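Weekly puzzle thread! Below is a chain. First person to post its structure in token form gets bragging rights.
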Amino acid sequence: MGRAPGTTPGRFGSETGASGPARAAAAGSPRRLPETAAVLAVRRAVRDWLSVYGPRETEEQAVAVALSGGADSLALTAAAVVETNAVDALVVDHRLQPGSGTVAATAAARALAMGCRSARVLTVEVGTEGGVEAAARRARYAALDSARAGLPVLLGHTLDDQAETVLLGLARGSGGRSIQGMAACAEPWGRPLLSVRREATRQMCADLGVTPHDDPHNAAPEFTRVRLRTEALPLLERILGGGVAPALARTAEQLREDGAVLDALAAELRHTASDGRALVIETLATAPAALRKRAIRAWLLDNGAKALTTKHLQAVDELVTAWRGQGGVAVGGGRPDCRLVAGREHGRLTLRLGEDGIGPMKQTQPAQRAHHHGRESG
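Winning reply:
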């Protein structure tokens, strides 16, 4: 899908946006986007993404774009307008800074001026759990998911963002999955600009005569990602003679390809080991660790586990490979009064609800049997 270059130009009208739903004006003199190197690079990236992942189920072939008002999302929005049939801009106001409402309204107005079908400001409440960055991310994604009306949501993450993500995952030692970076498509989220440098999106905005909003948080040194961006990556570039960000992004892409194969093999292992909602220990124990851990991870997530860590996964894996009579492993998920606990019983790996992770297990399925800590039942 997608429009041929230059056949349907972007629109730069005069209508201003407002909080809540807004509609682009029918009037306005459309003009073509300038054919600069930056504009063409961004448009090509969006078109390539659409050719692989774009919606084809409906005649509308519309997308939503998460628009912050920054250079990356503005460039993405402008390109999406000329490469798709319709764009709905979703602007999240986190209300974490004075004047955030004005910034959001300005972004919505620019979206309409660029030719978006609609622009909507989503006001959210940001909690404190896990820190401001994590809490804002959760609130943002939840708001976008609720407002997308079944459309895929395009996000403005660039190659530089990918490099930072890979470096963060590498430093945290969270395994191969954490350094696979961000996926180009993980429904409903799409990231068309993972091959585009951040400097190209800023140049595109300059070419369009649009001044992007610079979020002060993007320069705040108390955030780890900011220090990676402003200190660590430039230092690596100097030490290694450049090319670090593209190299990290290539590493992510290669690992993601390898990971897809391993995930497929792990799915086969899980199918073979399945016994109802449990997994057969003997089948798991004889499998390679890379496949076994992936199978266990997918099984945990599909059965309600949340926020799995490497420590969680290792402890559950030891129920299979290093059984010493240890008790069950509490993983995130369950209910406020009952934690979700993985345990071993009757040669099976089971998952059930237990009060605070201790004591008798509450059955989640009639076929599940009681688990007793400290020994394998039967």
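Puzzle host: Confirmed. Bonus trivia for everyone else. The radius of gyration is 24 Å.
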